[in-house]
């Protein structure tokens, strides 16, 4: 591995600073989305740290000339395609953060080359990358263990297996990017295992064990494809270098080699025929292969691209454009990106950017491959270049089923890995007529764009915190500052409208309702807006008493979300209030068709029209696990009920019915502590639901602070008769008996909102609490 025998004081300082920067950068990149959504102050503090680190490094190496990498022409073409994409964007502000990240990767590439030339050891970078990614892998393994322990605790034994393996989420938030990270850094662990000292070899072995254990539980078909690519390329390149040794071994011990090959063939066949189908069985996949499950998304992607073939819809603008063509959300799958790296480039940058991207990839692969070929066989540098090629190929293979360009922990890592292999591709790199101090220009651009994003996000996060604490008026007032800081951000404008609707609920001041209507009318008029914003506007119209306008707004929402039952049911209720019986009947039946299990709600017993709408409605077949648990409980089979409710938890069945049934199962099993936990979880979830949360997360997907309300107050909400009212009444009794009066009042309010189908206005007073 590249090293320097002599480390003068400056070199030692550069090595320490580089190690610190890699560790901090990796930790920041892993938590980036979490920090952005919840703590812009911490994000700003991290930016300050990197600004200081960049300044110190530039002082130390600023006089050094920048290396000529041979990629400058491609970078110039890339900058041109980025400029065209931004200029043609519908929402240019959505592209600024992406521009900051991509500029940062280019700075990182050149900065790393300068530091390596000044004596920074590659090993310092490798250790930092493996340390943080190993921690991520360890957390994933702990998550798997915790989930299985929880499953066995609910079942009551540790011999029953769930109907399918657990699919980990990891601290990164999803198994697909988790596997991209693991596959990217796996060759570095193999590198340490081959060239490192004893301590590093032990650490690398531990890293690879964690990686191998978590690999199947990711249930990530894109990740498995990436794993096949990374190990295939690494074995091919390293095997080629050792071909003479392998041939000699084959000649000496051909029988043993045939036996080993046969065992490996049997193992690989077993993995393909048994392991892959078993670990692919998680219901989150739906049905079909990787390609089949992505076809619907890719069809939408190509439909969007046809509208903007040359320059694309604009960087960061895929999801807003997706709402122009998709009719699947809510009530179906929301695609925040194209789920294909190459189609993501095509749809956001058009043909121009697509061609530039492939020119860049071709030059990168050619130069790395050429450098590997020209290096002495089995030399540390050649081994390192094979690692870079394997890591890069893993991402290109992973990109067939997913887009990984949005993840700093992936893009920053591959940038450093390629830089390590690029440094000596033709001996010492030629020099550009620019000193390293000029990197201050793009560094300032990155920091400036990021600082502005923090500046805008800060009041948005403060508004969300005020809302969560029940101060709806403060939340709405704070959003006025958000709009002053970012007046063109349509997503923040929609969230301001929702905040103002809840401020009206808290204060009764009609001016808040008027502002809410104005903001929501503005966002739905600007473009084909997503269905939730039309539905929110309908709720505001209902609060104002404009039922006919509410009906029209809900028709728009239904047209954009064909599979969302709540919109059809709310439209039916509005039509019923207007006396439009035929429209009400049609809308009610459509809502029940989309979610037949809601036919069990007492809502349908209240009028003849509703009873007529419910006639002939059947429950969902096959039954969800929670309903099977309820059936077993009613049959007196507590053991089977425990097993089925554990299956429900493991499958992640949505809604509140699983929690209500779990409370019933726990009570029947005589485990009061378990019942109390289940009832509190149910109460807390319903409380958040009746405060407007539906989990749409549109803001989070666009790197914006998430406001904890997706619908205005009093939005119609129906539930089946699954025992949740009984659970709430029981919980309130327990809290009253224990003297927890504040919690008892909370539970009472949730119980009343449930009885009133989501309405929280004019709730009756809670019973006295001693």
TrEMBL record:
Give an example GO cellular component term for this record.
membrane
SUPFAM superfamilies recorded: TPR-like
Record has Transmembrane helix as a keyword: yes
Asked whether the keyword Transmembrane is assigned, the reply is yes
- Record's bilayer topology term: Multi-pass membrane protein
Q: Which domain of life is it from?
A: Bacteria
Q: What InterPro entries does the annotation carry?
A: O-antigen_ligase-rel_domated (IPR007016), TPR-like_helical_dom_sf (IPR011990), WaaL-like (IPR051533)
* Identification of the protein by name: O-antigen polymerase family protein
């Amino acid at each position: 591995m590249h090293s320097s025998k002599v480390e003068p004081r400056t070199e030692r300082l550069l090595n320490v600073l580089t190690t610190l920067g890699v560790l901090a950068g990796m930790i920041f990149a892993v938590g980036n989305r979490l920090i952005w959504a919840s703590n812009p102050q911490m994000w700003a503090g991290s930016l300050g740290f990197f600004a200081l680190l960049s300044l110190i490094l530039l002082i130390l190496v600023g006089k050094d000339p920048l290396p000529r990498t041979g990629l400058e022409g491609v970078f110039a073409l890339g900058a041109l395609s980025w400029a065209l994409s931004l200029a043609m964007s519908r929402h240019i502000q959505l592209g600024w953060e992406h521009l900051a990240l991509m500029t940062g990767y280019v700075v990182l590439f050149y900065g790393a080359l300068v530091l390596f030339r000044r004596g920074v050891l590659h090993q310092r970078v490798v250790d930092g990358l493996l340390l943080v990614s190993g921690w991520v892998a360890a957390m994933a393994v702990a998550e798997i263990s915790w989930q299985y322990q929880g499953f066995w605790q609910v079942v009551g034994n540790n011999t029953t297996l769930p109907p399918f393996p657990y699919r980990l989420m990891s601290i990164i938030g999803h198994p697909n990017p988790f596997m991209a990270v693991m596959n990217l850094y796996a060759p570095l662990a193999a590198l340490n295992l081959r060239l490192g000292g004893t301590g590093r070899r032990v650490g690398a072995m531990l890293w690879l064990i964690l990686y191998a254990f978590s690999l199947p539980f990711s249930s990530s078909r894109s990740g498995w494809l990436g794993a096949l690519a990374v190990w295939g390329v690494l074995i091919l390149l390293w095997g080629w270098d050792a071909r003479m040794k392998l041939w000699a071994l084959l000649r000496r011990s051909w029988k043993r080699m045939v036996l080993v090959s046969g065992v490996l063939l049997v193992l690989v066949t077993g993995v393909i025929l048994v392991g892959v189908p078993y670990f692919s069985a998680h219901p989150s996949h739906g049905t079909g292969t990787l390609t089949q499950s992505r076809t619907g998304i890719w069809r939408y992607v190509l439909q969007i691209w046809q509208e903007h073939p040359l320059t694309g819809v604009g960087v960061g603008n895929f999801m807003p454009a997706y709402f122009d063509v998709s009719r699947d959300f809510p009530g179906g799958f929301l695609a925040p990106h194209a789920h294909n790296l190459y189609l993501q480039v095509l749809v956001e940058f058009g043909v121009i950017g697509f061609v530039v991207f492939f020119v860049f990839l071709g030059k990168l692969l050619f130069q790395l491959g050429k450098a590997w070929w020209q290096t002495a066989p089995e030399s540390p540098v050649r081994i390192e270049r094979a690692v870079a090629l394997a890591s890069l190929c893993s991402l290109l293979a992973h990109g067939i089923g997913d887009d990984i360009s949005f993840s700093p922990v992936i893009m920053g890592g591959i940038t450093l890995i390629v830089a390590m292999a690029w440094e000596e591709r033709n001996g010492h790199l030629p020099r550009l007529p620019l000193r390293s101090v000029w990197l201050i220009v793009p560094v300032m651009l990155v920091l400036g764009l990021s600082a502005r994003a923090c500046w805008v996000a800060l009041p948005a996060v403060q508004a969300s915190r005020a809302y969560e604490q029940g101060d709806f008026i403060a939340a709405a007032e704070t959003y006025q500052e958000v709009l002053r800081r970012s007046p063109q951000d349509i997503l923040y404008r929609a969230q301001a409208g929702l905040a103002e609707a809840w401020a009206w609920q808290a204060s009764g001041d009609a001016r808040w309702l008027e502002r809410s209507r104005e903001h929501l009318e503005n966002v739905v008029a600007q473009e084909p807006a997503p269905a939730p914003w039309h539905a929110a506007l309908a709720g505001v119209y209902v609060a104002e008493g404009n039922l006919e306008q509410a009906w029209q707004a809900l028709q728009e929402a239904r047209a954009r979300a064909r599979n969302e039952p709540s919109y059809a049911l709310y439209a039916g209720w509005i039509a019923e209030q207007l006396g439009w019986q035929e429209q009400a009947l049609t809308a009610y039946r459509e809502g029940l068709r989309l979610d037949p299990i809601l036919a069990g709600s007492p809502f349908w017993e209240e009028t003849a029209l509703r009873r007529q709408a419910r006639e002939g409605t059947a429950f969902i077949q096959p039954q969800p696990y929670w309903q099977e648990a309820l059936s077993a409980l009613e049959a007196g089979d507590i053991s089977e009920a425990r097993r089925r409710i554990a299956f429900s938890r493991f499958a992640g069945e949505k809604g509140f019915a699983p929690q209500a049934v779990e409370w019933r199962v726990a009570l029947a099993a005589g485990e009061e502590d378990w019942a109390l936990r289940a009832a509190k979880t149910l109460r807390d979830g319903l409380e958040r639901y009746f405060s407007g949360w539906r989990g749409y997360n549109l803001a989070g997907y666009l790197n914006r602070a998430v406001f904890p309300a997706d619908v205005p107050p009093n939005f119609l909400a129906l539930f089946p008769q699954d025992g949740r009212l009984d659970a709430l009444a029981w919980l309130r009794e327990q809290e009253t008996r224990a003297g927890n009066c504040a919690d008892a009042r909370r539970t009472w309010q949730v119980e009343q909102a449930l009885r009133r189908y989501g309405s929280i206005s004019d709730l009756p007073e809670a019973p006295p609490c001693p």
